[in-house]
Design a protein that fits this description.
Bound molecules: zinc ion
Number of domains: 2
Number of helices: 6
Strand order of the largest sheet: 1-2-4-3
Helix content: 25-40%
Largest sheet: 4 strands, mixed
CATH superfamily of the largest domain: Metalloproteases ("zincins"), catalytic domain
CATH architecture of the largest domain: 2-Layer Sandwich
Number of strands: 11
Radius of gyration: 22 Å
CATH class of the largest domain: Alpha Beta
Distance between the termini: 24 Å
Order of helices and strands: EEEEHHEEEEHEEEHHH
Strand content: 15-25%
Structural class: alpha/beta
Shape: globular
């Protein structure tokens, strides 16, 4: 069992590790606390001293993680919490019915525990992703190398990539993308469609990308800031 406690205002999780001899490893968990991997018999006062010594740096790192993951991932799925849809914050609201409904900026989900609500929200995301991605793909049907035909495609929740294009030319999009603004969905979709032409990240590939999306570098940067969305897998 790992120990959890506060040292000053810093949340710490202590993992006592039999195999660790002397060194202490320090890391930040995306859920917003410090993880210390310590030798089995480390005294608590040594841990406290270490955390205090690195206090400034740890607070800085924790704040960064909290900013990046604010209203994303690791949610309790309580009523009043915020989920993202096309870059817009939606407020979750539990209701007595058994359907998921979007009313303005409120997403109404059947009452239940967090696992059940998470399931409903993900099912809803999956449905929205289907139609949103289809519309985005259709908007690129005119690309000359497609000859009017869209490639086979699907979407699924993925942890480490926004999209991919197989050697056979099938496209996969990450369902989590439906949480980001449409312009970023367009960016990933076009990126994968360009791979049908150039199956690499060569200069030609990037030139093709820029021809059809002059601000693709800006969008790529914006997407980079959304990486924490993938933590919610
Ligand atoms: Zn690529």
């Amino acid at each position: 069992m790992n120990e959890r406690f506060l040292i000053d205002d810093i949340p710490v999780e202590l993992r006592r590790n039999k195999r660790r001899r002397t060194r202490i490893a320090m890391d930040i968990d995306p859920a917003g606390h410090v993880v210390l991997d310590v030798p089995q018999r480390t005294a608590l006062c040594d841990v406290q001293a270490l955390v205090r010594e690195h206090g400034r740096w740890l607070r800085y790192r924790l704040n960064r993680v909290r900013e990046e993951t604010a209203h994303l991932g690791r949610m309790g799925y309580e009523s009043g919490e915020v989920v993202l849809y096309l870059g817009e914050p939606l407020t979750l609201e539990h209701h007595a019915g058994d359907d998921v409904r979007l009313k303005g900026l409120v997403l109404r989900v059947p009452s239940g525990d967090s696992a059940c609500t998470r399931k409903h929200v993900r099912t809803w995301y999956r449905q929205q992703a289907g139609s949103v991605f289809e519309a985005v793909l259709a908007s690129y049907r005119h690309l000359p190398w497609l000859e009017g035909r869209l490639p086979p495609w699907r979407h699924r929740f993925m942890k480490s990539q926004w999209g991919s294009c197989s050697s056979k030319g099938a496209i996969s999009l990450n369902t989590h993308l439906v949480r980001t603004p449409r312009r970023l969905i367009e960016y990933v979709t076009l990126h994968e469609l360009c791979h049908l032409r150039h199956h690499n990240h060569s200069r030609r590939f990037h030139a093709l990308m820029s021809t059809h999306m002059p601000d693709c570098a800006v969008r790529s940067k914006e997407l980079g800031r959304c990486m924490s969305l993938l933590l919610d897998e």
